[in-house]
């Protein structure tokens, strides 16, 4: 009897060890798969995803313009990794590709959040440029503490320095270079939803320059008198840019850009409207199709990979820039044939 028990115990030991390994031991892989999609024409948590406020007509929209995401799972056990891989929906990639060993997870997440914030800004500028809003010397950020804190705000357009008009950052900087720390400068500015204003700022000192320090970051950007807010939280990376821009264009123009269809897509966007490639295109396409999309906007550089997925019922539109994306959607709405992958 004891011999039988001993034999059983010996046979069970490898099984127990395997179960422990599968359940406890983590693997150096991250799982990537289809993530949630968000309609940029709709609402999330009671807020419009793209909210335009001010003295401007916002047109009604229909259909969908969904941005897409990639889900990500870290800290996987061996068992979890095997189950995800066997599902056929998930891709396992070495963790170092997602979280480089020279950076902490917090640093990577912070960088992704910064990329997302920048994509919102670029999406606004690209859309306003497409809609022919003129450029201005636009305040991007205000240092706090700093000389301009409480007087200028991000989004202000600076029109003149000490009574001298400025049309671009080069002219603005040339005037500042004639000042010294301690000087007072009078700035004429326009503020979104608040009209025009004038403020006097005492310039500070900065070790990086020998002229007066204003404490602002400025750029040449198309300026409009209304505010555009993008209300999506906990989304990282820059790949929502294209769909954000399309939503702004749709809301500020007559008619329905998507012709009432369920359109989804992805792509970075520059402030000049150029659409750039992204990662995880096939995961995003699967998420879009499962959400109900029939049309998917694909950055031109992702076309080969996207076409290889062969997802029935999802038409792929090749996109190189915002203008081309708008034209392609108009073509689809009219029953024509847009550029395809």
Automatic annotation (TrEMBL):
Residues 134-193 form the PDZ domain. GO terms for molecular function: ATP binding; ATP-dependent peptidase activity; serine-type endopeptidase activity. The keyword Protease applies. It catalyses: Hydrolysis of proteins in presence of ATP. It comes from the Bacteria. The chain crosses the membrane at residues 7-30. The keyword Transport does not apply. InterPro entries: Lon_proteolytic, Lon_Prtase, PDZ, PDZ_sf, Ribosomal_Su5_D2-typ_SF, Ribsml_uS5_D2-typ_fold_subgr. Its EC number is 3.4.21.53. Residues 234-332 form the Lon proteolytic domain. One of its GO terms (biological process) is protein catabolic process. The active site is at residues 239, 284. Keywords: Hydrolase, Membrane, Protease, Serine protease, Transmembrane, Transmembrane helix. Belongs to the peptidase S16 family. This is endopeptidase La.
